[in-house]
């Protein structure tokens, strides 16, 4: 699953075999992946075996070598806020009902991920202090709120940015040009 906002990847969740993920990353396939390219340019569903899918780098053949010979992807949303969901099987092409399930799942996930992402003035103030190097206690004192109020702000920031930690929230806020 990828959720792209502009040129930033807001969410990536992968459950493919770890060996494939490591090989894919080590070889920089994301920028040459024919599925990602197709999904950025189109809305809809495509099977990985589609003969019209250009794959000059042979990435789909390499995926098959890692036990991912059959797959399909769905692309949803406008170009500036696109979600891509892909699934693969080792034994056969996905059937029509499985593609429909993929479509429904993709639409559900896409609706959960807002395309417009903004921090409130208070959230931005809090995250900017910590991003600048202040400890939580210092940031709370600087802003003039309690430690627990700052923790609540950061909880809402993490939720909004789909981050697990404050450090991850700060990095995502920077990546999305929110701070």
UniProtKB/TrEMBL annotation:
It comes from the Bacteria. Gene3D superfamilies: Transcription factor LuxR-like, autoinducer-binding domain, Winged helix-like DNA-binding domain superfamily/Winged helix DNA-binding domain. The keyword Transcription applies. One of its GO terms (molecular function) is DNA binding. Residues 116-173 form the HTH luxR-type domain. SUPFAM superfamilies: C-terminal effector domain of the bipartite response regulators, Pheromone-binding domain of LuxR-like quorum-sensing transcription factors. This is DNA-binding transcriptional activator SdiA.
């Amino acid at each position: 699953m990828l959720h792209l906002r502009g040129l930033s990847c807001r969410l990536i969740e992968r459950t493919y075999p770890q060996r494939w993920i490591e090989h894919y990353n080590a070889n920089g396939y994301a920028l040459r992946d024919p599925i990602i390219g197709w999904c950025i340019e189109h809305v809809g569903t495509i099977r990985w075996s589609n003969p019209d899918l250009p794959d000059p780098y042979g990435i789909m053949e390499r995926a098959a070598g890692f036990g991912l010979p059959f797959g399909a992807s769905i692309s949803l949303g406008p170009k500036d806020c696109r979600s891509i969901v892909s699934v693969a099987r080792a034994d056969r092409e996905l059937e029509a009902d499985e593609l429909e399930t993929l479509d429904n799942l993709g639409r559900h996930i896409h609706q959960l991920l807002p395309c417009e992402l903004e921090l409130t003035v208070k959230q931005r103030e809090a995250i900017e202090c910590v991003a600048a190097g202040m400890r939580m206690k210092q940031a709370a004192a600087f802003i003039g709120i309690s430690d627990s109020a700052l923790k609540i702000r950061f909880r809402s920031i993490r939720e909004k940015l789909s981050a697990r930690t404050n450090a991850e929230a700060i990095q995502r806020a920077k990546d999305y040009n929110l701070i």
